[in-house]
Design a protein that fits this description.
The chain is α+β, with helices and mostly antiparallel strands. The protein has one domain: 3-Layer(aba) Sandwich (Trna Endonuclease, Chain: A, domain 1). The protein has 4 helices and 7 strands. Strand 3 and strand 4 form a beta hairpin. The longest helix is centred in the middle third of the chain and has 10 residues. The radius of gyration is 14 Å and the shape is globular. The termini are close together. The N terminus is likely disordered.
Length: 123
């Protein structure tokens, strides 16, 4: 699926943080980085991107308002975030394509939050 953004397949150098995932987020007054979510059948869906460029293309046509930006997350940070949002986010959508709504293809790739956490832990 191409989640890692390593240069020419090499592992990240020591001291350099490896960011594998990107979210659209906004810093709240509480200091918490709040992720942008979509809605499907009354439940929140967290779009997760494998590259900064993909996240930017997804964000560009949306008028989300002030403060929304693309933020990198390490695997550990993303797992922690998903646990913190366990009551709010039910689904994860890996690398949705830019566009105004979720198409049939995107909906077929929805993964439950718990399955996605399992995927993250296993990789």
């Amino acid at each position: 699926m191409g989640w890692r953004e390593d240069r020419e397949g090499s592992p990240p150098s020591p001291g350099r943080r490896a960011f594998s995932y990107y979210l659209i987020s906004r810093r709240e007054a509480t200091g918490f980085e709040s992720p942008h979510t979509l809605f499907h059948c009354g439940e929140e869906v967290l779009p997760v991107f494998c590259s900064k460029e993909a996240a930017r293309k997804f964000l560009a046509p949306r008028a989300l308002g002030e403060g929304w930006h693309v933020r990198p997350f390490s695997t550990g940070e993303l797992i922690s975030l998903l646990f913190a949002l366990h009551e709010r986010v039910a689904w994860v959508l890996p690398s949705p394509l830019p566009g105004p709504s979720l198409g049939e293809d995107a909906l077929s790739r929805l993964r439950s939050r718990d399955d996605f956490i399992g995927f993250l832990i296993g990789n």
